[in-house]
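tool_call: predict_structure(chain=1)
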Amino acid sequence: MAWLTAATALLATLGSAPAGAAGEWQKVGDDVRSGVSGLAFAGRTDDGTGVHVLAVHDNKRSGQKRLSRITHWDGADGIAPITWDGPEPVDLEAIEGIPGMPGEYLALTGRGILFRLKVTGSTATVVDYTPLPAVGEGDDFESFAVVAQNGKLAALWADRGAGPGRPATLYAAPLTFATWGQPLFGAVTNRPYRATQPADDGTRHISDIAVTAAGRLVVGSAADAGDDGPFDSAVSDIGRVTISSTGRVRVTLAASPTVLGSYPQYKVEAVECLPDSPDTLLGTDDENLGGHVRTESFCGA
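tool_result:
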């Protein structure tokens, strides 16, 4: 009876634990070169209990790793390097799968260069690369998402912003591809966005973007006081994106964004909705402290 009482109390404690509670993050990197700057779903494990994702790293020197494959289960993670074949990017910050094109991805650098990749086995081959359109003065990008609705594609990306004086700028545009593989963008629209949490002077208002099957915008926001922290993060529901049958893209931001989870001591830079599931994979780039991943349930209808 005493054991049953103790177990019941423990379950109650776990059930009421706040998002970001100790022990829920799983470590996937030990140093500044192995943090997770972006994640893209790459498939499920054969037994269906885990997922494969591609992770980009914001390394800048030639020969440093740019891309890894993480196999994520509750309680354990496997990590394998991916060989980069083609011109090396500097400071990769986001990656997204291309809907309807298995094994193909778009990866974005902080300065707005978008790489189209074909991943086969342990090699990622650069198909093409191009600058983003309508880059504003001082823009620094950490996010990229691709939306498929009504047989059309759209891309979303954001300047991350910087504290109270510089909100994020969320960009959106129709997306197509040239016959040789180059991403092509239609008319670009943009909206300013300020995170409600965290609220530090160094807040990056949008550190990544995910879009649910219903078109909800789920974004990360992060504060970074330096390579050794302290860090602070939150994930919020900030609005919705729709694409009409003619390809027109509309972004509607909520008057009051909803904070879905708070993560003190971690710098969330990756938010990925897993298909056919409310599951959401988060990744952190904690600089000298490495990187972590965890699963939440933010991507439901």
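agent: Helices lie at 2-15. Proceeding to next step.
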